[in-house]
Automatic annotation (TrEMBL):
Presence of keyword NAD: no
CoA carboxyltransferase C-terminal domain span: 234-473
Protein's UniProt name: Carboxyl transferase
InterPro entries reported in the protein's UniProt record: AccD/PCCB, AcCoA_carboxyl_beta, ClpP/crotonase-like_dom_sf, COA_CT_C, COA_CT_N
Top-level taxonomy: Bacteria, Bacillati, Bacillota, Clostridia, Lachnospirales
One Pfam family of this chain: Carboxyl_trans
PANTHER family (UniProt xref): PROPIONYL-COA CARBOXYLASE BETA CHAIN, PROPIONYL-COA CARBOXYLASE BETA CHAIN, MITOCHONDRIAL
GO MF annotation: an example: transferase activity
Classification via PROSITE patterns: COA_CT_CTER, COA_CT_NTER
Residue stretches making up the CoA carboxyltransferase N-terminal domain: 1-174
TM region positions: none
Length: 478
């Protein structure tokens, strides 16, 4: 039956779970339909292996599609097995991991299979915000099936055989697969906004294991997921010189330098991911102006401005964290908005969504200003004005309406150069320093970059018992 160890779908499950911990459910289920001589085909487990196992001792529910059975296509019973996994996961309060390798809807079952698609969608929606949902794409994931990883909280795709698309590359007008493979792991990771990582099968399964150990099991789970052996007062070196790349900063402040980045190839000017502070999982959102490789060489550079994609990425991440009461840390270094025609088309809506996500979130929220924090771009980046519980700033950070030189040119359009220079120095001292913002109560504490870890650990420890009594309403509209 489907539990054969040579079966690819079962092999993937074995790589994911702790040794000998997987228990299969529904192994004797087969297709019920007899149309088009379907009963003559052997359909063990109806093309999907379902069950539960342990990942580092944590209970998870799993489904893994078997492309060797009718191409892994989704039929009536196939869909019911996946729906049943979701029902059990929500009852038990445990994450769902789905491995997709599918030829689409089973044509022989037509509307029964189509209804099965709808059942899977409905279960994903019901589980959203209740248990974490993680998807790995190892084969075809096309058409309506592409909605499945998009509805999940996290999605991964195998770099060689994984294909994800709504329309196949050759069906897009003016395109062909040789010209641009829009279904490839690379394209989808960089362009569609729902893929977190891509790599080999073993790499992404290992990353899924790592992610599960960082997340609470459900929306009532504890964010303290492990013990901390790291020094809580550890000095963080080179923070000020590497502030352009928040991946370095977040790795430096985290327990054991652990940082799990999400959507790493999408909207690189906004970094999102998870760190550990005294064993507590904390979601991080950070503006990015530089990217360095493992050898310390700068590989990419961005302006410190907000883009539509970056705002959408941040908003979605903050909403996930809030749903599971995961505290949020923001590293802010932003001076305005990306002046690009492409991003201008949807920047206002995207910025509104990010602003809404931060302001609406009731989880613990801390903002650390590492560079510039200017104008309404800063306000939207989890400022105290929209609900941050604590705002820290490095000693040399800039906080204000805009750069002092630009401000005085607007205020004194007829002034000469020497007068403008004098006025700019005066404006910066009075209005554009972190110290000036702290005097007005908009910044809670000025800290040295190397002391960031100890202050952030203390901040989230204090905020652990935060409780907010929200006004009664059905839901917001953003």
């Amino acid at each position: 039956m489907s539990s054969n160890k040579e079966n690819l779908a079962m092999q993937r499950i074995a790589k994911l779970v702790d040794e000998n911990s997987f228990m299969e459910i529904g192994s004797h289920v087969t297709a019920r339909s007899t149309d088009f001589n379907l009963s003559a085909d052997q359909t063990p487990s109806d093309g999907v292996i379902t069950g539960h196992g342990l990942v580092d001792g944590n209970l998870v529910f799993i489904y893994s599609q078997d492309a060797a059975v009718l191409g892994g296509t989704i039929g009536e019973m196939h869909a019911k097995k996946i729906a049943s996994v979701y029902d059990m996961a929500m009852k038990m309060g445990a994450p769902v991991v789905g491995f997709v390798d599918c030829g689409g809807i089973r044509l022989q079952e037509s509307v029964d299979a189509l209804d099965g698609f709808g059942q899977i969608y409905a279960k994903e929606v019901a589980a959203s915000g209740v248990v974490p949902q993680i998807c790995g794409v190892f084969g075809n994931c096309g058409g309506g099936l592409a909605v499945v990883p998009a509805l999940c909280d996290f999605a991964f795709i195998e770099e060689s055989n994984g294909k994800m698309f709504m329309n196949s590359p050759d069906s897009i007008k003016g395109n062909r697969v040789e010209k641009c493979d829009t279904s490839s792991a690379k394209f989808q990771s960089e362009e569609n906004g729902c893929i977190d990582r891509y790599g080999s099968e073993d790499e992404i399964i290992a990353e899924i294991r790592s992610l599960i150990t960082m997340l609470p099991l459900n929306n009532e789970g504890d964010v303290y997921t492990e013990e901390c052996d790291d020094d809580l007062n550890r000095i963080c070196n080179s923070m000020d010189t590497m502030k352009g790349d928040p991946r370095y900063l977040l790795s430096e402040i985290s327990d054991g330098h652990a940082f799990f980045e999400t959507k790493s190839e999408y909207a690189k000017n906004m970094v999102t991911g998870f760190v550990k502070l005294n064993g507590m999982t904390v979601g991080a959102v950070a503006n990015c102006t530089e990217v360095y490789d493992e050898e310390g060489n700068k590989t990419e550079e961005f302006a410190n401005s907000l883009s539509a994609r970056g705002c959408e990425k941040a908003a979605e991440f903050v909403q996930f964290c809030d749903a599971f009461s995961i505290p949020v840390l923001t590293l802010t270094n932003v001076s305005g908005f990306n002046p690009c025609k492409c991003t201008e088309k949807r920047l206002a809506k995207a910025l509104a969504r990010m602003t809404y996500a931060f302001a609406n979130a009731t989880t613990a929220k801390v903002n650390l200003i590492t560079g510039e924090a200017y104008g309404s771009a800063y306000v939207s980046m989890n400022s105290k004005s929209i609900g941050a519980d604590l705002v820290y700033a490095w000693n040399d950070a800039k906080v204000g309406m805009m750069d002092a030189d630009l401000a005085v040119k607007i205020m004194y359009p007829d002034a000469k150069a020497d007068e403008l220079s004098k006025k700019a120095a005066e404006y910066e001292k009075l209005q554009s320093t972190a110290e000036a913002a702290a005097r007005r109560g908009y910044v809670d504490r000025l800290i040295a970059p190397e002391d960031s870890r100890k202050y952030l650990v203390a901040a989230f420890e204090m905020l652990y018992t935060k409780y907010v009594n929200e006004p009664e309403k059905k839901h917001g509209t953003k």
